[in-house]
Amino acid sequence: MVVRIATRDLVSLAAGVLFGVGLGISGMTNPAKIRGFLDVTGRWDASLLFVMAGAIAVHLPLRRIVLRRRAPLFEPCFHPPLPTRIDLPLVAGSALFGIGWGLLGYCPGPAVVAAATLRPVVLVFVAAMVAGMAIYWARTRGRAPSAGPS
Question: Measuring CA to CA, which residue among 100, 103, 105 is closest to residue 129?
Fold first, then answer.
Protein backbone atom coordinates (compact mmCIF):
# COMPACT_ATOMS: atom_id res chain seq x y z
CA MET A 1 0.00 0.00 0.00
CA VAL A 2 1.40 3.37 -1.01
CA VAL A 3 0.74 6.23 1.34
CA ARG A 4 0.52 9.60 -0.33
CA ILE A 5 1.25 12.56 1.89
CA ALA A 6 0.11 15.87 0.53
CA THR A 7 2.24 18.98 0.81
CA ARG A 8 -0.63 20.52 2.78
CA ASP A 9 -0.35 17.73 5.37
CA LEU A 10 3.42 18.15 5.68
CA VAL A 11 3.05 21.91 6.13
CA SER A 12 0.37 21.32 8.77
CA LEU A 13 2.60 18.84 10.57
CA ALA A 14 5.57 21.21 10.47
CA ALA A 15 3.45 24.09 11.80
CA GLY A 16 2.13 21.88 14.62
CA VAL A 17 5.60 20.70 15.57
CA LEU A 18 6.94 24.27 15.51
CA PHE A 19 4.03 25.42 17.69
CA GLY A 20 4.58 22.56 20.14
CA VAL A 21 8.30 23.25 20.39
CA GLY A 22 7.54 26.94 20.95
CA LEU A 23 5.11 26.07 23.74
CA GLY A 24 7.73 23.88 25.39
CA ILE A 25 10.58 26.39 25.09
CA SER A 26 8.42 29.27 26.31
CA GLY A 27 7.36 27.46 29.47
CA MET A 28 3.68 27.26 28.52
CA THR A 29 3.71 23.53 29.37
CA ASN A 30 4.87 24.25 32.93
CA PRO A 31 1.80 24.61 35.20
CA ALA A 32 3.81 26.43 37.89
CA LYS A 33 4.80 29.10 35.35
CA ILE A 34 1.18 29.53 34.24
CA ARG A 35 -0.10 29.79 37.81
CA GLY A 36 2.69 32.30 38.54
CA PHE A 37 1.57 34.38 35.58
CA LEU A 38 -2.09 34.26 36.70
CA ASP A 39 -1.22 35.19 40.30
CA VAL A 40 -1.20 38.95 39.83
CA THR A 41 -1.68 39.66 43.56
CA GLY A 42 1.10 37.37 44.79
CA ARG A 43 4.47 36.47 43.30
CA TRP A 44 3.55 37.44 39.75
CA ASP A 45 5.71 35.94 36.98
CA ALA A 46 5.39 38.35 34.06
CA SER A 47 7.72 36.37 31.77
CA LEU A 48 4.83 34.99 29.70
CA LEU A 49 4.10 38.56 28.60
CA PHE A 50 7.24 38.23 26.45
CA VAL A 51 5.81 35.06 24.89
CA MET A 52 2.58 36.90 24.05
CA ALA A 53 4.42 39.97 22.78
CA GLY A 54 6.60 37.77 20.57
CA ALA A 55 3.57 35.98 19.15
CA ILE A 56 1.81 39.27 18.41
CA ALA A 57 4.96 40.75 16.86
CA VAL A 58 5.15 37.82 14.42
CA HIS A 59 1.41 37.55 13.79
CA LEU A 60 0.43 41.14 13.02
CA PRO A 61 2.71 41.85 10.05
CA LEU A 62 2.29 38.35 8.60
CA ARG A 63 -1.50 38.56 8.88
CA ARG A 64 -1.53 41.72 6.81
CA ILE A 65 0.68 40.09 4.16
CA VAL A 66 -1.37 36.88 4.07
CA LEU A 67 -4.73 38.62 3.83
CA ARG A 68 -3.57 40.53 0.74
CA ARG A 69 -3.64 37.21 -1.11
CA ARG A 70 -6.77 36.06 -2.94
CA ALA A 71 -6.69 32.71 -1.15
CA PRO A 72 -4.49 30.67 1.20
CA LEU A 73 -1.93 28.33 -0.34
CA PHE A 74 -3.86 25.10 0.27
CA GLU A 75 -7.51 26.21 0.30
CA PRO A 76 -9.72 27.84 -2.33
CA CYS A 77 -10.65 30.70 0.03
CA PHE A 78 -10.11 32.11 3.51
CA HIS A 79 -12.42 30.97 6.32
CA PRO A 80 -12.61 33.86 8.78
CA PRO A 81 -14.37 33.17 12.07
CA LEU A 82 -18.00 34.17 12.25
CA PRO A 83 -19.22 36.51 14.97
CA THR A 84 -20.79 34.52 17.79
CA ARG A 85 -23.60 35.50 20.12
CA ILE A 86 -22.66 35.84 23.74
CA ASP A 87 -24.91 33.21 25.27
CA LEU A 88 -24.91 30.81 28.23
CA PRO A 89 -22.89 28.03 26.53
CA LEU A 90 -20.19 30.52 25.50
CA VAL A 91 -19.97 32.08 28.98
CA ALA A 92 -20.08 28.68 30.72
CA GLY A 93 -17.42 27.26 28.42
CA SER A 94 -15.20 30.30 28.96
CA ALA A 95 -15.64 30.01 32.71
CA LEU A 96 -14.76 26.29 32.67
CA PHE A 97 -11.70 27.03 30.54
CA GLY A 98 -10.53 29.77 32.93
CA ILE A 99 -11.16 27.68 36.04
CA GLY A 100 -9.29 24.71 34.59
CA TRP A 101 -6.43 26.89 33.40
CA GLY A 102 -6.13 28.59 36.78
CA LEU A 103 -6.38 25.40 38.86
CA LEU A 104 -4.24 23.07 36.76
CA GLY A 105 -2.11 25.46 34.72
CA TYR A 106 -2.96 23.78 31.40
CA CYS A 107 -4.91 24.89 28.39
CA PRO A 108 -5.49 22.64 25.35
CA GLY A 109 -2.37 23.23 23.24
CA PRO A 110 0.19 23.04 26.04
CA ALA A 111 -1.66 20.06 27.57
CA VAL A 112 -1.31 18.08 24.34
CA VAL A 113 2.41 18.90 24.23
CA ALA A 114 2.80 18.02 27.94
CA ALA A 115 1.04 14.69 27.35
CA ALA A 116 4.37 13.49 25.94
CA THR A 117 5.65 13.47 29.54
CA LEU A 118 3.10 10.72 30.31
CA ARG A 119 2.39 12.34 33.69
CA PRO A 120 -0.95 10.98 34.95
CA VAL A 121 -2.38 14.43 35.76
CA VAL A 122 -1.71 15.59 32.19
CA LEU A 123 -3.13 12.41 30.65
CA VAL A 124 -6.30 12.73 32.76
CA PHE A 125 -6.62 16.39 31.73
CA VAL A 126 -6.21 15.56 28.02
CA ALA A 127 -8.67 12.64 28.30
CA ALA A 128 -11.23 14.89 30.00
CA MET A 129 -10.68 17.57 27.36
CA VAL A 130 -11.19 15.08 24.52
CA ALA A 131 -14.28 13.68 26.25
CA GLY A 132 -15.70 17.19 26.61
CA MET A 133 -15.10 17.89 22.93
CA ALA A 134 -16.73 14.59 21.97
CA ILE A 135 -19.78 15.34 24.14
CA TYR A 136 -20.10 18.81 22.61
CA TRP A 137 -19.72 17.42 19.10
CA ALA A 138 -22.32 14.70 19.79
CA ARG A 139 -24.80 17.20 21.24
CA THR A 140 -24.42 19.64 18.36
CA ARG A 141 -23.68 17.00 15.70
CA GLY A 142 -20.66 19.02 14.65
CA ARG A 143 -22.62 22.23 13.90
CA ALA A 144 -20.70 25.45 14.17
CA PRO A 145 -21.79 27.86 16.91
CA SER A 146 -24.72 30.06 15.99
CA ALA A 147 -23.63 33.25 14.27
CA GLY A 148 -25.13 36.63 14.79
CA PRO A 149 -24.67 39.87 16.67
CA SER A 150 -24.33 39.73 20.41
Answer: 100
- The answer as to whether 69 is a domain residue is yes
Domain membership of residue 148 (yes or no) is: no
Residues in the chain: 150
Q: pLDDT tens digits, residue range 109-150?
A: 899 999 999 999 999 999 999 998 898 888 888 666 555 444
Torsion (CA) 50, 26, 80, 87 in degrees, nearest 10:
-90
Nearest Cα to Cα of residue 104 among 127, 125, 129: 125
Domain span holding position 87: 7-140
The stretches of 68-148 forming alpha helices (DSSP H) are 88-104, 108-114, 120-140
Using alpha carbons only, what angle is made at residue 83 by residues 81 and 85, rounded to the nearest 5 degrees? 135
Give per-residue burial for 107-124: e unless 16+ CB within 10 Å, then b: beebbbbbbeeeeeebee
Task: Please state the domain count of the chain.
Answer: 1
- Distance, in Å, from the CA atom of 82 to the CA atom of 84, rounded to the nearest integer, reads 6
Secondary structure class of 148 (helix, strand, coil): coil
Could you read off the pLDDT of 35-75 as tens digits, one per residue? 888 888 988 999 889 988 999 999 999 999 998 999 988 88
pTM listed for this prediction? 0.72
